[in-house]
Design goal:
The protein has about 900 residues and is of the alpha/beta class. Helices cover about 45% and strands about 15% of the residues. The protein contains 28 helices and 29 strands. The strands form ten sheets. Strands 6-5-14-16 form a four-stranded antiparallel β-sheet. The protein has a four-stranded mixed β-sheet with strand order 10-11-9-12, with helices on one face. The protein has a four-stranded mixed β-sheet with strand order 27-26-29-28, sandwiched between helices. Helix 2 links the parallel strand 1 and strand 2. The two termini are about 70 Å apart. The protein binds one RNA strand of 77 nucleotides through strand 8, strand 12, helix 8, helix 11 and strand 25.
RNA sequence: GGGCGAAUAGCUCAGCUGGUUAGAGCGCCUGCCUUACACGCAGGAUGUCGGGGGUUCGAAUCCCUCUUCGCCCACCA
């Protein structure tokens, strides 16, 4: 496990073996009787047939970051994985396979079909869980569930029966969303509304007594075959006299009444509406109020049925639409056709336009469940990130509608309802156990044909996955959970319903925080999808750049409340941040570990006096980074956490500290031991801070630190606390001065194109306190990193040189002989002085403004004064230098 | 039709409770194969913070308005 690092970073060589080792050691198995405060995340169970896509990648990366962070903080971090049987989706997949054999599910029959789905699921299902492992997901796989498992099925039955006993489940004939392709009912959430350009036809309906006619408007003319009334607003003066009269329905030749109903908007269209109770929600309700006939004119697959005149029968709904319109036109009853944009429901599984259909279905009465769920949000027992999503949730809860839970599918939890087959008994049995005989008459029983909505099992997952309805140790230990991480699309499908179920059956919210992250989109901001072909395959990314690169890129690109934009056409540049960073880490590790082979003393054993300015500085930066990164992780600002550690590792540690300590590590300078101790210490800290985001590289490097025990894993190492660094404001200031000085020399060198190998002389004129201390502490580093051969502090040399002003006082001069262009120096110093003077002037007027001085808080005024003084000093210094160079004014 | 959000460097985005000489990564330009890393090092350029108005001593940040894009919800046929 700890052979030397390969010269080249090759994630494919390290990631898989590492994951296997984590599994073997069981680091992520959580004991219900263990110690530590529980931290629980329930995975949004992917469809059992799903293949990992970018959305899963993002979703599961976030969860893994959180769970690893909390695990390292000493909490009993449990991430429960599972898969969803996904009724319609899975059934569709298997039906497609059957279709290749020229068969339909009806050809093979229910029993055989379900067998085939099981075989398919057992064979190919759950591959997404294996793919999550490639991502690094630290789930407790020993707890993996499938929503059709016996245990979870028992929970489903229990819940159905309980709700039924409470009168919250009922069966009835209502208008539901029907998918004519999947041949099943859908819930409101499953019928996705999409703005569509359509048309609206104005049809003339003649009065039966021949005294005139009415014009009605419709977007679905074919439904007129099932019209059983025309409705107008009861107070509409235009139609007051017509209420109670009859229409002779064209094409069908049926007498239908004109009724008055408040639901009609007199201002819309003609103010008269055709009423088709069997094919429209509103019409259905109006029909109920007026006791109208419900005439269903369509077959389940949306063809015209026998309730319509013979010439329309068998026509598909859009063909029927054409036929109806043509007949109206021929009869001179088509008044006009207009363009019309409106929302049309589409099946969320197959995209087919849903048909509102009158049918017998099972429903859950939601109002009583919604009230406590709304209260839990209002009183803060549950909160959302980003916060505004809470309004969305509340809005849905307030306007909740009953949930149609029956599906005319074969794949799913069969509804636990049986009907007595004896005609004169006809008892309905709702039972936890499967009855063999009628409980009333002893006759034979027949189970309801329908299955339950997939979400009827997933809304129970927070407790059903832990053994409910039994009283298990898991349930006692891990319910309620802590955080739920998911996409906003399933806020209503799943999240809201889990909250309702948790409160109803467990009396507690199932989690405290709901973190809703954004969507992965392409550069045109389109959602990635199979049909658009604009998806990114996370496995391909992992294959090419490694899971760490994928994870870092996703995390760093994802601020709270924003979407993640990636370019599917250019994976190289899309994932460059993660790829580059992982590679950088690898090389830092290679360099550092190479120098730690002799071991590194614990930081505590290094005498304070042996710490150099650079040592103190990097420890101070570690201290700061621990604080900020931890806070950001806690606040779900994962991108900020990642950025803080990135900056520490790359800019602070690699670019400055490691460059500074090289001579000590090489042994050309004394202090090698303390350098190794400090470097090992801060690298250890940084790896731990980064581990949640990049588990593989950090583990690989961390295991090779001298301090790491052979069998230990960073993933269960302790989270750094601020005291692991050292607060040291002075070191930050002084090393900052050192950096500024070096940078200034480098800038001069670049400006004058000094050849990279050449050394220069440097004079520091009138150094500030900080610069003075930096020079005293570490002139050697200045010489080396700025390639200075001779460093003097004193008056400016007579030789002409490039000049820079560092701060209020300090000026550096680099004599460059012929290279110096005096005019250029004068111009540059002049423009800098002018810029500074402008700032000074603005600042002076601000500070002499009574309004500002009297109204701004004292600390701000103080800060602004300091700024003014500093700028003034800089302006003065700049002017002085110009004079010293002999520049003309 | 309601509700919500976003517009900041060529691109993707930070900038959290008003006070920074407005930042990062990618890309771009210049110079470097400096024995950890060219997926690198050093340096650099680029922004009237969508337009207009307002509040304030002070606005990228708060308010109004316009424009342009998203998202969610909705039984006006």
């Amino acid at each position: 496990m700890t052979e030397p690092l390969a010269p080249q970073y090759d994630p494919s060589q390290i990631e898989a073996p590492l994951y296997a080792w984590w599994q073997e050691r069981g680091f992520y198995k959580v004991d219900a009787h263990g110690s530590g405060e529980p931290y629980v995340i329930q995975i949004p169970p992917p469809n059992v047939t799903a293949v990992l896509h970018a959305g899963h990648g993002l979703n599961n990366t976030i969860q893994d970051v959180l769970i690893r962070f909390e695990r390292m903080r000493g909490r009993r971090a449990l991430w429960v994985p599972g898969t969803d049987h996904a009724g319609i989706a899975t059934q569709n997949v298997v039906e497609k396979i059957l279709a290749k054999e020229g068969l339909t599910r009806f050809d093979v029959g229910r029993e055989e079909f379900v067998k085939r789905v099981w075989a398919f699921v057992n064979e190919t299902g759950g591959q997404i869980l294996e793919q999550l492992k490639a991502l690094g997901a630290s789930c407790d796989w020993s707890r993996t569930y499938f929503t059709l498992d016996e245990d979870l099925s028992r929970a489903v039955r229990e819940v159905f029966v309980r709700l039924h006993e409470q009168g919250l489940i009922y069966r009835g004939k209502y208008i539901i969303n029907w998918c004519p392709r999947c041949l099943t009912a859908l819930s409101n959430e499953e019928a996705e509304k999409e703005e569509t350009d359509g048309r609206i036809w104005h049809l003339r309906y003649p009065l039966a007594d021949g005294s005139g006619s009415l014009v009605v408007a419709t977007t679905r003319p074919e439904t007129m075959l099932g019209d059983s009334a025309v409705a107008v607003h009861p107070d509409d003066p235009r139609y007051a006299l017509l209420i109670g009269k009859h229409i002779r329905l064209p094409l069908v030749d049926r007498m239908i009444p004109i009724v008055g109903d408040d639901a009609v908007d007199p201002a819309f269209g003609s103010g008269a509406v055709k009423i088709t109770p069997a094919h429209d929600q509103t019409d259905f309700e109006i029909g109920k109020r007026h006791d109208l006939e419900q005439i269903n004119v369509m077959t389940p697959d949306a063809h015209i049925n026998e309730n319509a005149p013979e010439r329309f029968r068998g026509l598909e709904r859009y063909a029927a639409r054409k036929a109806v319109v043509t007949e109206f036109e021929t009869a001179g009853l088509l008044v006009k056709v207009e363009q019309h944009r409106h929302a049309v429901g589409h099946c969320y599984r197959c995209g087919t336009v849903v048909e509102p259909r009158l049918s017998d279905q099972w429903f859950v009465k939601m109002q009583p469940l919604a009230e406590p769920a709304l209260a839990a949000y209002r009183d803060g027992r549950i909160s959302f990130i980003p916060e505004r999503q809470g309004d969305n949730y509340a809005n849905w809860m307030e306007n909740i509608r009953d949930w149609c839970i029956s599906r005319q599918l074969w794949w799913g939890h069969r509804i636990p309802v049986w009907y007595c087959e004896s005609a004169d008994c006809s008892t309905t049995i709702v039972s936890r156990e499967t009855p063999t005989r009628c409980t009333a008459c002893g006759g034979s029983v027949r189970q309801d044909e329908d299955v339950l909505d997939t979400w009827f099992s997933s809304w129970l997952v927070p407790f059903s996955s832990l053994g409910w309805p039994d009283h298990t140790d898991d349930l006692a230990a891990f319910y309620p959970g802590t955080t739920l991480v998911t996409a906003p699309e399933i806020l209503f499908f799943w999240v809201a319903r889990m909250i309702m179920a948790g409160l109803e059956f467990k009396g507690e919210v199932p989690f405290k925080t709901v973190y809703l992250h954004g969507t992965v989109r392409d550069t045109q901001h389109r959602k990635m999808s199979k049909s658009l072909g604009n998806g990114i395959d996370p496995l391909e990314v992992i294959d090419r750049f490694g899971a760490d690169a994928l994870r870092y890129t996703m995390v760093s690109g994802m601020a709270v409340g924003t979407d993640l934009i990636l370019d599917p056409a250019d994976l190289d540049s899309s994932f460059a941040p993660g790829r580059n960073f992982a590679n950088k880490l690898w090389n830092i590790g290679r360099f550092l570990l190479g120098h730690l082979e002799a071991g590194a003393a614990p930081i505590g054993s290094v005498p304070e006096g042996e710490l150099t300015l650079a040592d103190r500085w990097i420890l101070a930066r570690a201290h700061e980074t621990i604080g900020t990164a931890t806070q950001h992780y806690e606040r779900f600002r994962l991108n900020d956490a990642a950025a803080a550690v990135y900056h520490f590792l790359w800019s602070d540690l690699a670019d400055w500290y490691l460059e500074q300590v090289k001579p000590r590590l090489y042994g050309t300078h004394p202090g090698g031991e303390s350098a190794r101790a400090v470097a090992a210490h801060v690298f250890d800290i940084a790896l731990r801070l980064l581990h949640p985001v990049m588990p593989f590289v950090t583990e690989t490097l961390w295991k090779r630190l001298p301090s790491s025990a052979e069998q230990a894993s960073i993933s269960v190492a302790s989270w750094p606390v601020e005291a692991d660094g050292r607060a040291d404001a002075a070191a930050l200031v002084d090393f900052g001065a050192l950096q500024a000085l070096i940078t200034a020399v480098r800038v001069l060198r670049a400006d004058y194109a000094v050849s990279p190998g050449a050394t220069v002389k440097l004079t520091v004129v009138d150094p500030s306190e900080a610069v003075r201390r930096a020079i005293d502490a570490d002139s050697d580093t200045i010489r080396r990193l700025a390639k200075v051969e001779q460093l003097t502090v004193g008056p400016a040399p007579s030789e002409a040189g490039g000049t820079r002003v560092l701060d209020d006082r300090t000026t550096i001069v680099v004599p460059l002989g012929d290279l110096v262009d005096l005019d250029k120096e004068c111009a540059r110093l002049g423009s800098e002085a002018a810029k500074m003077e402008q700032l000074v002037a603005a600042q002076e007027s601000k500070l002499s403004n009574d309004n500002f001085v009297s109204r701004a808080p004292a600390n701000i005024i103080e800060k602004e004064r300091e700024k003014l003084e500093s700028w003034r000093a800089q302006a003065v210094t700049l002017r002085e230098k110009r004079r010293a160079l002999g520049c003309a004014d």
